[in-house]
Design brief:
heterodimer, A: alpha/beta, ABC transporter transmembrane region fold, about 60% helix, elongated, disordered N terminus, B: ABC transporter transmembrane region fold, Rossmann fold, 3 domains, 6-stranded mixed β-sheet, 4-stranded antiparallel β-sheet, 21 helices, binds adenosine-5'-triphosphate, binds magnesium ion
Chain lengths: ~600, ~575
């Protein structure tokens, strides 16, 4: 299985500071939370320093002076301090968690809304699993960054700066000796960042492949099993899973190197102090006390650096994930409402295709020079051999795609000027592939629109002759439906999507092979009902069973993307063209 | 698994070495400082400095191997584990996949598995290294002064009580978080798969609202979990702090009363401070383990699902089976009944039908009559009851599953395509890609002209589920896939519904010689698709209502005749008008 297109675009061109800036934009609504969490973090660290001091006081002043009541007092004070520290740290973690979770929530909801605006053109090239990987997995990685407290890195940074100041104050020469190893650390971090970031990008992209593979194979497991492909597909899975493993092992390798590298650099600094500082002491240029203090502070100096490098890994992974999330957010939906839209309250006159050309990609035109018009109240049929371009025409009309040339006019306005959602809400589409959501029958028919009453739903179900089978189900309209309607027969699924189209009370009804999986008896019943329903409405019907469309006012015959005939049933029959010939074929006996 | 155990043990040895060497450098440092008190040879200083560096380099090497082996192994285990779960999923039957949600399973194979991996790698690593630190520091403390050491341990029982109390919660809440993540993932999966419908009916906003609710619930559960584990870390620090206070308070008195020397006391309290950090790490590890355990439970739900349909004791052995070969393809339904949910709701009942090898059967009937159910039983997509369905007189349940399915070319009603090339889709059931077979199958399915018109021909990639093809093209591709394996038995479940009559006629014309030596079952709503078959049945509400040849059924003047006339009559009507 190949997951093409979008994954390939990953250039990772977004720089870190841009990423951070964008992430912090999501943080800004919660800045007070964030600031108070930082303040608590700071306070927590301070309280952490009080402990050793109290110990010192206890030993030096009370124990040595045998002051028991003082000792009691210090013990009480100490308990107070650690209790306070407990509370402060707990509070800090909670606030930080909350902030982080909110940021992730906003990011995820933002991405989800963005995905709702992406067009079929985008989804044609995407694997659902790959997109899910960004929405769920990548944001989860960011979440991990939050929960693991990378944010407290800021605290570490503060501490670093503080200690640097102290070192300089104690003895600037020696301090410079210590700092001389810093370029090494920066260099190591830089190399590590580059290598590891690249691997993390790979990891995230390969995780997306795993997701895409799973999504597809779980959906098509019946085919896999029916064609005994398990072994082969398992091999494929092992391959992409193995790729994922490989890129992870790379980060494990780099990280396994990086951490000791930092440690060794730290040791180098210590060695320098001993050697150089010790020499100074021997020469009397430095007091012994200062040297000891210096060593202690240097140890403190490197502890946050170790800490930081521990979290650096998580940070890199999160950055790689953030890149992917933002890349997707930055992909513009190629179809949207213009800034100034033409409002169209009612569709009242005509739909007109004016010399429309269309290609899904490049210049392989699947529709060429299509012109026709439909007046309000008319019923128009599209007929043609398979692959002629019928579905493509209605996709253009519903503005799922844009024509490459020509115009589609609605009541005299170019469809591109209309408010996209307003226009679509005038249309009900029964698409060729019935799609049901998990839930129950009721929610599938009204698609979660609570303003449509169950009575209306039932009415629509009766119209399409679905009520009968629905009422036989144990829970009737509340019968649970599994993913994609897998527990219904294909015809039943189709009837439900048909009922869905009716219940939305459209001005324009589009039926794309809406009764292809339905027996002719049921179809005839639906036809009768439709005749009443369609009065005053406009409809476009695609069907291969010509019996379905004979009542249309106008029949448009397509062949290889071009209109070859149009007219009424009788006109086309008398003309003895393709339509006549298809008709003869179907009703020969 | 054994190989992994060895690797992990080696990794743990390196971990031990790393921890031991990490004690040496501070020791050298201490000596160096001590030596500076007196006067010392600068050359010795250099030696100390070199020793510190050298020891750290050795420690670094150990640490490198420790990480590489332990973390690397956890990744390898994850890899194997994921393969195994997937392999297991492949054995599960359709009934499982109908109930389970795709996004949910995906979440288990990624998010839950990751939580388990965290235990195996960083979890074990940190647990063991904290334990080592505990033991060394604790041992030293007891060595220095066992009375003080005991005092320092006072808060421990209390701590273990609290941990005991909280871990169950940690487990439950983690489980709830993982479950919600899976639910969100399933929601997203369905939404993205059905995005065209959502956009067509302008339901985007409602979907976003629903997603936000899921998301909100996820946040809530995460916070509930954070209330607990967020308490752990500070609690651990608190406990070690408490130990210190007790030591200062009670130990201080003993110093005052002269039972303990001041020097011991000072040294002791500095060791105690060393414990703070590992205590915190321990809190983190406990959390990790609980989360991992919860995730493991969720993965086990998949692994514990028995494959509903598989070979078992009644299945013929390979030898027995090959003695029966070659199969001719005679199919017999003997009083077959079937239900999806318990015996009260029978979808098929009392089906008696004998189909000679090489003959063709047409199946018609209203929506939901049970046509698909009937044909799905033959490749055992759903399992028929034993002793009711036979091929060449052999109960299909005793035929090895793979062998059975290899005999059958199955074109399901919704022809699922993979996002591979057209050629790969056609050869899905073949050992390897074979251009000639592709072309043969494509020719019968009337795909040749269109596919060769595509710029990349058979190498054209199709989108997921075939979205970049027209409906009729999808159906024909799904047909070609079944034809390519040249099956003994061919099942076409309403495979022409999106194909125009002309193309259908062309296909049937080419199909007729192809199926001459094959048994063929064709489900359709169009009389034209089945009227040429040897035998036709009309299914109604799970029973065979009529059976016979096209002519016989017309003469019977029953349902079939009515259907037939309806398909013609409509036309007659029009002509009268
Ligand atoms: N999303 C897509 N991306 C690329 N090509 C497409 C896409 N959808 C359809 N096509 C191609 O456009 C052509 C016309 O397809 P369309 O679905 O419009 O045909 P149709 O007349 O509806 O056929 P059918 O009767 O089989 O449903 C076909 O050759 C098809 O392969
Ligand atoms: N997995 C399932 N679980 C429960 N009930 C099911 C399941 N699949 C199908 N059914 C029910 O069994 C009955 C027969 O379904 P089946 O798919 O066999 O019908 P069909 O004759 O093929 O119909 P169609 O013409 O619509 O394809 C229907 O009432 C359907 O709702
Ligand atoms: Mg069916």
């Amino acid at each position: 299985m190949r997951y093409h297109h979008f994954e390939g675009q990953e250039a990772g061109q977004i720089y870190d500071w841009q990423l951070i800036k964008r992430l912090s934009r999501y943080l800004s609504p919660y800045k007070y939370y964030f600031i108070s969490a930082l303040a608590l973090l700071f306070l927590g660290s301070l309280l952490g320093l009080v402990g050793p001091y109290l110990t010192k006081v206890a030993i030096d002043t009370y124990i040595q002076q045998q002051n028991i009541s003082g000792l009691n007092f210090i013990a009480l004070l100490f308990i107070g301090v650690i209790l306070l520290e407990l509370a402060v740290r707990y509070g800090q973690i909670q606030i930080m968690q909350y902030t982080g979770q909110r940021v992730m929530q906003d990011l995820r909801a933002g991405l989800f809304s963005h995905l709702q605006r992406m067009t079929p053109k985008f989804y044609d090239k995407q694997s659902v699993g790959g997109v899910m990987s960004r929405l769920i997995g990548d944001i989860e990685v960011l979440n991990e960054m939050v929960t693991s407290g990378v944010v407290s890195m800021l605290g570490d940074l503060f501490m670093l700066l503080g200690i640097m100041g102290v070192l300089l104050w104690l003895n600037y020469k020696l301090a410079l000796v210590v700092f001389s190893v810093l370029p090494l650390i920066f260099y190591a971090a830089q190399v590590f960042r580059k290598k590891v970031r690249e691997s993390f990008r790979q990891i995230r992209a390969r995780m997306a492949k795993i997701n895409a593979f799973l999504q597809e194979n779980l959906g098509g497991m019946t085919i896999v099993q029916a064609f005994c492909r398990q072994q082969k597909n398992l091999e494929q899975f092992k391959k992409i899973n193995g790729d994922y493993l490989d890129s992870y092992l790379k980060t494990v390798f780099y990280y396994a190197l990086f951490f000791p590298a930092i440690e060794i650099t730290t040791a180098l600094a210590m060695a320098l102090i001993i050697w150089y500082g010790g020499g100074q002491v021997l020469q009397g240029a430095l007091t012994f006390g200062v040297l000891v203090a210096f060593i202690e502070y240097t140890q403190r100096f490197f502890r946050p650096i170790n800490d930081l490098s521990e979290k650096y890994n998580i940070l890199q992974s999160a950055m790689a994930a953030a890149e992917r999330v933002f890349n997707l957010l930055d992909t513009d939906p190629d179809i949207s409402s213009p800034d100034k839209t033409q409002e169209l309250e009612q569709f009242s006159k005509t739909i007109e295709f004016k010399q429309v050309w269309f290609a899904y990609s490049g210049d392989e035109h699947v529709l060429a020079d299509i012109s026709f018009s439909i007046s309000k109240g008319e019923s128009v049929a599209l007929v043609g051999l398979t692959g002629a371009g019928k579905t493509s025409i209605i996709s253009l009309l519903a503005r799922f795609y844009e024509p490459s040339r020509g115009q589609i006019m609605i009541d005299g306005y170019d469809v591109r000027q209309l408010n996209l959602k307003q226009w679509r809400s005038k249309i009900s589409l029964v698409s060729q592939e019935p799609f049901l959501f998990s839930g129950d029958i009721l929610s599938n028919i009204r698609l979660g629109r609570e303003d449509i009453s169950p009575a209306c739903v039932e009415q629509a179900a009766r119209e399409v002759n679905a009520h009968q089978f629905i009422s036989q189900l144990p829970k009737g309209y509340y019968e649970p439906i599994q993913e994609r309607g897998a527990n219904l027969s294909a015809g039943q699924r189709q009837l439900i999507t048909f009922a869905r189209a009716l219940v939305f009370d459209p001005q324009l009804l589009i039926l794309d092979e809406a009764t292809s999986s339905v027996d002719s008896q049921t179809e005839a019943l639906i036809q009768d009902a439709l005749e009443k329903l369609l009065r005053g409405r406009t409809s476009i019907v695609i069907a291969h069973r010509l019996s379905t469309i004979q009542r249309a006012n106008k029949i448009i015959v397509l062949d290889k993307g071009k209109i070859v005939e149009q007219g009424s049933h009788q006109e086309l029959l008398t003309r003895q063209g393709i339509y006549y010939w298809l008709h003869q074929l179907q009703f020969k006996d | 698994m054994l190989a992994y155990r060895r690797r992990i043990i080696i990794g743990l040895v390196f971990l031990l070495l790393t921890n031991i060497t990490s004690l040496i450098a501070p020791l050298i440092l201490k000596y160096a400082i001590d030596s500076l008190r007196g006067s010392v040879d600068p050359a010795l200083l250099l030696k100390y400095a070199a020793a510190i560096l050298g020891v750290t380099v050795i420690q670094g090497i150990f640490r490198y191997y420790m990480r590489w082996i332990l973390i690397g192994t956890s990744r390898r285990i994850e890899y194997d584990f994921r393969n195994n779960i997937f392999a297991h999923l492949q054995t599960l039957s359709r009934s499982y996949f109908i109930k389970a949600k795709t996004g949910d399973i995906m979440s288990r194979l990624t998010n839950d598995l990751n939580a388990v991996r965290m235990v195996l790698g960083p979890g074990i690593m940190h647990l063991v290294s904290t334990l080592i630190l505990f033991i060394t520091a604790g041992g030293l403390m007891f060595y220095l002064n066992w009375k003080l050491a005991l005092l320092a341990l006072i808060p421990l029982p209390l701590l273990s009580l609290i941990i005991r109390f909280l871990t169950q919660r940690l487990y439950n809440y983690s489980e709830a978080v993982q479950a919600q993540l899976a639910r969100m993932s399933a929601f997203a999966q369905e939404n993205l798969s059905g995005i065209r419908i959502i956009q067509a009916f302008v339901r985007e906003r409602a979907q976003v609202e629903q997603f936000k609710q899921q998301n909100q619930e996820y946040l809530k559960r995460n916070m509930r979990l954070a209330h607990i584990w967020g308490f752990f870390l500070p609690l651990m620090m608190f406990t070690s702090g408490l130990g210190l206070v007790i030591v200062i308070w009670l130990g201080g008195r003993q110093v005052i009363s002269g039972e303990i020397s001041l020097g011991d006391f000072v040294a002791f309290s500095s060791y105690l401070a060393l414990l703070t950090f590992p205590m915190m790490a321990l809190g983190w590890v406990v959390n990790l383990f609980q989360r991992g355990a919860a995730a493991m439970g969720r993965i086990n739900k998949i692994l514990d699902t028995e494959p509903g349909i598989s070979d078992n004791a009644q299945t013929l052995s390979a030898v027995e089976f090959s003695s029966l070969k070659p199969f001719k393809g005679e199919i017999e339904f003997r009083h077959l009944s079937f239900s999806y949910n318990g015996p009260d709701s029978q979808v098929l009942s009392g089906i008696n039908l004998q189909l000679e090898a090489g003959s063709s059967l047409g199946i018609v009937g209203p929506v939901g009559a049970g046509k698909s159910t009937l044909v799905n039983l033959i490749p055992r997509i759903f399992d028929p009851p034993a002793g009711q369905l036979f091929i060449d007189g052999v109960d299909i349940k005793s035929i090895p599953l793979d062998e059975l399915r290899k005999m059958i070319g199955y074109v399901p009603q919704d022809g699922f395509l993979f996002s591979e090339t057209i050629g790969e889709n056609i050869t899905h059931g073949l050992e390897r890609r074979d251009m000639q077979k592709i072309q043969e199958a494509a020719a019968i399915s009337q795909l040749t002209r269109e596919v060769e018109g595509f710029p990349q021909g058979y190498d054209t990639l199709v989108g997921e589920r075939g979205v970049t093809l027209s409906g009729g093209q999808r159906q024909r591709l799904s047909l070609a896939r079944a034809l390519a394996i040249k099956p003994l038995i061919l099942i076409l479940d309403d495979s022409f519904s999106n194909i125009d009559v002309y193309t259908e006629g062309e296909i049937i014309q080419r199909l007729t010689p192809f199926i001459k030596s094959r048994t063929c079952l064709i489900v359709s709503h169009r009389i034209s698709t089945v009227q040429w078959t040897d035998h036709i049945i009309v299914l109604d509400e799970g029973k065979i209502a009529e059976a016979g040849t096209h002519r016989e059924l017309i003469d019977q003047a029953g349902i079939y005749a009515k259907l037939y006339r309806r398909q013609l009559m409509l036309e007659k009507l029009e002509q009268v008008k």
